[in-house]
Design brief:
mainly alpha; Oxidized Rhodanese, domain 1; 2 domains; 5-stranded parallel β-sheet; 23 helices; globular
Length: 476
């Protein structure tokens, strides 16, 4: 979608400004220029579209629909309404009080308070532009799940007595307010709102992209991958803890999410950070302290924080190779219906006893066949050389998991694809293949080695391979 701008920005930075491609400064400046304009364009287009649709709704309609709704169905509706209402965590609080005045149960009002900042249009717009519709859809679903279950749990605790200020219920039933606007009026209102939002957040975008550009150009990928990637179990809770003291919006945090994930941090950890910043900010707690008891605030933060942790781990599990069937399985696990599926491991003795001519032929693959499977998205090329070897040179599209890191990083490998292990020749790659085979993975090793693959990828072969990888990435 933005290939033209990526090419043009590269020309401006490397040819126009004379910066060296591949240098730290050159890559940082290119990232800043490319991402800033890309995010600005996405924000204007998508916020305008959402704002136009939002003119058909108003807060009075929300209160009318929620009044008298039963638990869970009310929680679900409140969470959905949180998507279409233009509120951050702090500005949603007045409407929170308005809901209570309308005699809407506390749990339902909390579902709205949780959903509004998590699933706002800015987060959705930027997620869609940076990671595609699949990640965006999963994020929205997770945000709704956190809001629905969080509000439901809080409602079951019956803590209305911990509301510190008197909330006088409105007498009678609410009546829906009818607002009739022409299409031109709606478009004008949406455009005014879009400009207003853009003016409020463009500096956050610049700061976020600026920090992201610095990380992109100057922080080594191995540094982030080592401390916040792979099987680092503490990455998700650490991201949540670091995000709570901050106060920003999705526009300021999303560029950091993009660059952190490109440097090796798993997307679930990065999104947990963003969700903590937007939904569990200290300024929000300070405002809530004036109207809610500390016990109720603690319960609110605890329930939402736990939900964000689950979302972070869920995203990490998805991106470590679960199939869509297993993704759905994870959701059922959270609800208590199903258990996770695991690969069937094989003992070394059993593998040797079953070894035959067919296995001898099937356990290896040559470069042309490997490239074809990788291009089709049916296989993952795993470079099992040491990090220093991989950093010096590697095949585009490969995943680096050094042989001595394979046992603790094995969960990063997809269980539904062929794993092709590779090293300069085939000694280490065959060791890795045997290990993965015993763990239940379908694995082969690259018989002619990476050196011959590099020799094969010259001229038209290289161009064709990179074009196929680009198409595969766009499909995802």
């Amino acid at each position: 979608m933005f290939d033209w701008w990526e090419h043009l920005s590269a020309l401006l930075v490397f040819d126009g400004l004379g910066l060296i491609k591949g240098s730290q400064l050159g890559e940082a400046v290119h990232f800043f220029l490319y991402d800033t304009l890309k995010i600005y364009m996405l924000l204007v287009l998508i916020i305008f579209a959402v704002s136009f649709l939002r003119t058909y709704f108003n807060t009075e309609k929300v209160r009318v629909y929620l009044q008298g709704k039963s638990e869970f169905s009310g929680n679900s509706l409140a969470a959905l309404f949180g998507i279409i209402t233009p509120f951050c965590s702090c500005s949603a609080i007045p409407l929170f009080l308005g809901f209570m005045q309308a005699r809407i149960p506390m749990g339902i009002t909390f579902s709205f308070l949780i959903s509004a900042p998590l699933n706002n249009e800015i987060a959705i717009a930027m997620l869609f532009g940076l990671f595609g519709w699949k990640i965006t859809a999963i994020y929205i679903g997770c945000g709704l799940l956190v809001a629905i279950l969080g509000g439901f749990i809080i409602g079951k605790c019956k803590l209305e007595k911990y509301v510190l200020i008197p909330v006088t219920p409105m007498s009678g039933d609410l009546q829906e307010v009818q607002i009739r606007l022409h299409v031109k009026q709606r478009a004008k209102e949406a455009w005014v709102y879009t400009k207003d939002i853009f003016i409020k957040i463009y500096l956050y975008v610049l700061m976020g992209v600026g920090i992201g550009a610095f990380i992109h150009g100057y922080i080594p990928a191995d540094f982030i991958a080592h401390y916040a990637g792979g099987d680092a179990w503490y990455a998700v809770p650490l991201a949540v803890v670091l995000g709570i003291p901050m106060y920003s919006n999705a526009a300021g945090v999303m560029p950091l999410v993009e660059v952190l994930t490109s440097k090796g941090m798993l997307l679930g950890s990065a999104l947990s950070f963003m969700m903590a910043v937007t939904a569990l900010s200290l300024p929000e707690a300070m405002i809530l302290k004036r109207i809610l008891h500390v016990k109720l605030i603690a319960l609110f933060f605890g329930v939402v924080g736990f939900g964000i942790l689950l979302v972070g781990y869920l995203f990490n599990a998805i991106l470590q190779g679960e199939t869509m069937r297993k993704i759905v399985g994870i959701f059922f696990i959270l609800m208590g219906f199903l258990q996770a599926q695991t690969l069937k491991e094989v003992s070394f003795d059993a593998y040797l006893e079953s070894f035959d001519y067919q296995e001898r032929s099937a356990m290896k693959i040559r470069t042309p066949d490997m490239l074809a499977l990788v291009e089709e998205g049916k296989a993952i090329l795993v470079d099992i050389r040491f990090r220093e070897e991989y950093a010096a040179w590697h095949i585009a599209g490969s995943l680096n998991i050094p042989l001595n890191e394979l046992p603790r990083r094995i969960k990063e490998l997809p269980k539904d694809k062929l794993i092709i292990t590779a090293c300069p020749h085939n000694d280490r790659s065959n060791m890795a293949r045997i290990y993965l085979t015993l763990k239940g993975y379908k694995a082969v090793y690259l018989n002619d080695g990476l050196l011959k693959t590099a020799d094969f990828l010259r001229g038209e072969n290289a161009k064709e391979y990179m074009d196929e990888l680009k198409m595969l990435k766009e499909k995802k």
